[in-house]
Design a protein that fits this description.
The chain starts with a strand and ends with a strand. Strands 2-1-3-8 form a four-stranded antiparallel sheet, sandwiched between helices. Strands 5-6-4-7 form a four-stranded antiparallel sheet, with no helix packed on it. It contains five helices and eight strands, in the order ββαβααβαββαββ. It is an alpha+beta fold. A hairpin with a 2-residue loop joins strand 5 and strand 6. Helix content is 32%, strand content 28%. The radius of gyration is 18 Å and the shape is globular.
Length: 182
């Protein structure tokens, strides 16, 4: 198992629609999890370059990435597409993000209900319907992200919770942090 992840630093239009002179910006970085401190410094630096009041978010891929597959696909992409030198980081990140280059098959439930009791009920139901024995819980701006180690049949679970804003994401990004530029 690799410890390589895709990180995304993004200032979204959705978060900054009332900010004068705002332009959406983003930066994608492929990095080992043990160097996450460097990513956080880069995130802070990126945020300070925004306009006053701009909100910037930091995300990490839920699943680690397969280094060998990324290397092979990157070489193919370089030879086939001949991207300009200034596009190499973007090309590398694009290759890394492809589903077939993930090293894990974790799923993320985006639970956009900011209610601790409800999320605990939902987690109980995950265990009931899945036979899984662990999960990760992360706080997000609109609720929670629940990460499970692998796939399972979610039809009954999602039917039971259909009246709530819950989205299943199969190889997505996990919200880590948000900074508002002063």
């Amino acid at each position: 198992m690799s410890n390589l992840y895709v990180y995304l630093i993004r200032s979204r239009n959705k978060d900054n629609k009332d900010i004068p002179n705002f332009k959406q910006r983003d930066k994608t970085i492929l990095e080992y999890k043990e160097n996450e401190d460097e990513i956080i410094e880069e995130f802070k630096s990126f945020a300070t370059k925004g306009v006053p009041g701009e909100q910037t978010r930091l995300y990490r891929s839920v699943n680690s990435r397969k280094e060998e597959k990324i290397r092979e696909e990157f070489i193919i992409r370089l030879l086939r597409d001949k991207p300009s030198m200034t596009q190499l980081n973007r090309t590398l990140a694009s290759v890394a993000q492809q589903v077939q280059n993930r090293d894990e098959s974790k799923w993320l439930f985006d639970f956009d209900v900011d209610n601790e009791e409800k999320v605990e009920d939902f987690i109980d139901d995950i265990y009931f319907y899945s036979e899984l024995d662990n999960h990760e819980l992360h706080k997000t701006p609109h609720g929670y992200a629940i990460i499970v180690p692998h796939r399972f049949d979610t039809r009954e679970l999602m039917e039971k919770w259909k009246d709530y804003d819950i989205t299943l994401k199969k190889d997505e990004l996990l919200f880590l942090d948000m900074i508002t530029n002063k």
